[in-house]
Every structure is written in structure tokens, then in C-alpha cells.
Amino acid sequence: MKTPPRNPKPETEKILRIHERLLAEYGDRPWHPRDPVATLVSTILSQNTNDVNRDRAFARLRERFPTWEAVRDAPLPDLIEAIRPAGLAPTKAPRIQEALRRITEERGEISLDFLAEMSVEEARRWLLSLPGVGPKTAAIVLCFALGKPAFPVDTHIHRVARRLGLIPQRTSREKAHELLEAIVPPEIYYPFHLNLIAHGRAVCHARNPRCDACILRDECPYPAPAPPRLPSSSLTLLLIRHAETVANVEGRWVGWGDTGLTERGRAQVEATARRLAKEVHDGVAIYTSPLPRARETAEGIGRALGIEPIPVEKLREINFGDLDGVTLEEMRTRYPDLYARWRDKTDTEYTWPGGEKRADFFRRVAEACREILSRHDRGTVIVVAHGGTVRACLAHLLPDRLGEWWGYSLDNCGITRLRIEDGAVRLLTLNDTAHLPEVKKEEL
Length: 444
Ligand code: SF4
Description:
The protein is of the alpha/beta class.
């Protein structure tokens, strides 16, 4: 390793301490030059996918098209087929070909070796002018292939750097490049980048970071997720997704927007109310999202149990913002980049345009859970809400199963039962639909 800077800034001192520990944990990472064109293509392939899929796609690409000229001139459908394992192939294939054409037009050959002669800023500007090349891809080509002082920021580095307090919490990934380049000594860009990613993957996971086992714990201001404060006595919690809506039938995702119950939805409310009237003899409260589809469901149940539902703002569905009412197909075809990020359920920074960030949604639903549970210590409490909200409640109350939060299948009017006893939570039933002879599977 090269000599660290003299009189470093306090952030840089902290980075050097972290770097030493990461080196001890994950080892040194000597730099070796790589082919810049191969690095560029491989990095475009890596966008919104994992390393395994990227490598499979890259290997297929090289096998089917042995030269970069062959990739550039390949029929587009053939190229799409070759790189399919990387995902988003119809978007990535034309980007790769356009980039190779631009390089050919400007340099008369497919080579990026000329970048080595440029300053890092000139080379970065040139790379950013290529289609499909953003700050991360440009920095990877500069740092990995050419050994230039550029610091790539991927999703792991963005998350871990913010948690460690190296950059402000609200820093965008683009801005993070600039901020980290200013405080990380250029001599350690390459090993620090790789080791921070290794730490993000091994310990500092997006959901449920293993702070207790973390070698950087004393350098990290990130609060480990607080275990839910639970009543010490015995309580049964029923989580119920609202009845079927018109939007459910049409396959549209409605968050804070309005959509009425269908006739079948009203029948589901009646069936759920009848069942709960038979089974729940110690009901103490019904809480509901204030959105009409949840309220109508809660009011039907409330009439059967003789309990007036209490609306709770924080139980609303996630706010889909400008995309409220969108269908899965529209997401996939009209917003492919957004769709790819949305599919990564570990990405808590994912934000609906004009709407809510996943992390903020989780936080408010966790607050709603805590507030509701703090009011009761016995009996049965019913919460009527939405698919996303019920999943977020489960993620909060069952933190050891956090990774499964999106996998819970929840039907309209399905009943999920939790037992809270002596401060511990037990999942009794998940999405019980025995009272609903014909249920509509949730499509979101
Ligand atoms: S202490 Fe926790 S949040 Fe901080 S770096 Fe370690 S795992 Fe990540």
C-alpha cells in the first residue's frame, strides 16, 4: 500500500482506520490492468443484476461474438439473446452497440487505450458522453481498467458509506462519487472500493445488517434496528388485508389513490366478519388504514364485533406517487430502470417518483405498530390495512425473518395471526383464507 496523505481531514483519518480493518478482514487487493473495452461492456451488463448473471452474459457474448467488431455489427436480436442472463437485455444490447459505434467513429478502431493519456476528468467526461454510461460505469473503467484515481460507487458502497457516516444520509449515488473522491485517499481507491463492497455483502446487508458481528461497529453511528417494544402480557394481533377492489381486478397498483370494493370484495367482508364474530370473543380494538377500501373492510368487521374502527394515518399503503394506478406490464415496459430497482426488494432506498421511499414506508408502519401495541396488553387487536402495510408490519414484528418480507403472499381478507407473549412474537397463521371459498390472489 502507498503512503497515506499527511495531515488528512478527520473523515479521511476515519476512512484510513476503516481501511486498515477491512484489509485485515478481507485482504489486500493488488491492482492489475484490464482491457478497458471489456470492462466497459461488462459494467454495462452488470447494471441492475448480480455478478453471476453479469459473468454468464459476458461469457455468452464473447463465445458468440469473438471480436468487438462482431458485437458492434451483430443483428440486435442475436445480441439481445446472447446477453439475456444479465436481464434488461433489450435496453443493454443497443447501448453496448451504440457505445462501440461511437468509439469506432471517433477513434477509427474499438479501443479505449487512448484514455490512459487523458487526465482523469477528461477521460471521465469522454466516457460519460457514451450511451448507457453513468458515473459508476465511467469510474469503474477508469479505476479498474486504467488505474486512474476515480472511485466507483455501487449500491453497497452507497449504503455502507452513508451508514458509516462518511457521506450525508441523503446523498444521491451520483453525488457520492464526488464526495468520496474528495475524502478517500486516491492511493486506496481500488482496495477500499472492493473491500467496502465485500463488507456490504458479508455483514452490512441492506436489510438486517449484522451490526453485532461487525468489525466497524465502534466507527459506525448507524443505529441497529431497534427490536420492537412489546407488551409483556398476552395479546393476539390479527392483520387483515382489505377486501378485493376494482384496481385489484384490473391489476393496477393503487397506493394512496382511491379504488372501490367490488361486489366480491363486499362478500369477502361479510364472510370475514362472520368468521371473526364466531372466533373472536376478546376483541379490544380495530385499527384501520384511513383509505376507503380498508375502512369499508374494517367497518364491516367492526359491525359484527360491536367495535368502532379507529383510523391510523400511518397504516396507509406505500405512496406510489406519480405511478399510482400503474400496472405491472406498464412498469416493465415504460419504466424499465425503475422496474429493475423495484424488483430488488433489498433496496430500501428505492423511491416511487413523487411518492415514498421504501425505508420511510417501513419506518412509519413500524411506528404505527409500536403505537398500537403500546395501548394494549391483552385481548385481540385487529389491524385492517394493505398488502404492503401488512408485510411491513410483519417485517417489523418478525425481524429474524426480515429477508422474507416481500415473499409473504397475502390475499384480500386473508387473516394473519400473531401471538405476542412475554415480549416475544409468534406467527400463528399466515394469510388464513378458510372463510373465503374463492379468493383473488394478490398480483402486486
Ligand atoms: S455497524 Fe452495522 S450498519 Fe455499521 S457498518 Fe457495521 S453492519 Fe453496517
